[in-house]
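Project standup — Tuesday

K.O.: blocked on the structure for the chain from last sprint. Re-posting the sequence here as requested.
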Amino acid sequence: MNANLTLLPGDGIGPEVIAQSVEVLEKVGSRFGHTFTFQEALIGGIAIDQTGNPLPDETLRLAEQSDALLMGAVGLPKYDAAPVRPEQGLLKIRKHFGLFANLRPVKAYPALAAFAPLKAELLNGVDMLFVRELTGGMYFGERQEQGDGDTAYDTELYTVPEVERVAHVAFRAAQLRRNKVTSVDKANVLAAMRLWRRTVTRVHEDYSDVALEHALVDSCAMHLLTRPASFDVLLASNMFADILSDEASVLAGSLGMLPSASLGEGRFGLYEPVHGSAPDIAGQGKANPIGTILSAAMLLRYSLALEAEAQAVEAAVESALAEGARTADIAGGGTWLSTSEFTQTVLAKL
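H.V.: unblocked you, prediction finished:
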């Protein structure tokens, strides 16, 4: 296979972790007989620095010519209160390509049980998939912020078609897993969430082989820490899934462990680790590359339909962890490998 991939390194530790995923993909290519062509483009704070735009037109042009996008992270403290912010580039590229479903797998590795703030027995069998609606809800609803005034609002808005399409993604994913979907909402308070629950319930009629349960977001947040192994696929709105999947990262040992895939109707997708840009550790070799490496594995699976290759990457990461390879965030104060050293361990397993 020949595939054209656009890299969006972004800010902070983004360039460091993207470099590691490129090495892994090149290794996969040489082992399995594929050719991956890489091109870099600007997004986020570095794009604002160089062009004044968090998503330059040139980036969109290159992305439109690609089979998939692999991103590092966006965000810089100096832009936190600015009218033009790095995160706007990420929201815009998701909207531009219609990437409405964000898949965030969370798996507890036995080798890292000691690093999760839960009793080890609670982590047995933890293997869940968040399906996050990505282009609607409060992050895209009508908003108003009057400078330093006393009033501001963001609107939680959903339509039936928006909920229907992401619900289908969740139910189809469950059919390939353990046939259970937990739909998360706040239907006891919010009108948009009552529409969400009604719509998910109706879509479920097409999936009689999948069990559906509804959970209020606050109780779901509690159950993620008291009975996490009971979850299979969790379907949630843009904001709720954003928060809950970050909470669930503690089950894996670190936010640096989690990958994600943002998908639309076809095979094209944007792949990125769940973690942020972490500018405080940029350039120090402390960044955990696992989230980005596993995002590359998801790219192989969903955009390129290379399942064996994806599994090989995932197995290499798990093998490295099982043999004691650790980055700073999962070393518990003990000996740890640098970002590139950990990747070399993964490459050896491949």
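K.O.: great, moving the ticket to review. The mean pLDDT is 96. The chain has eleven helices and twelve strands.
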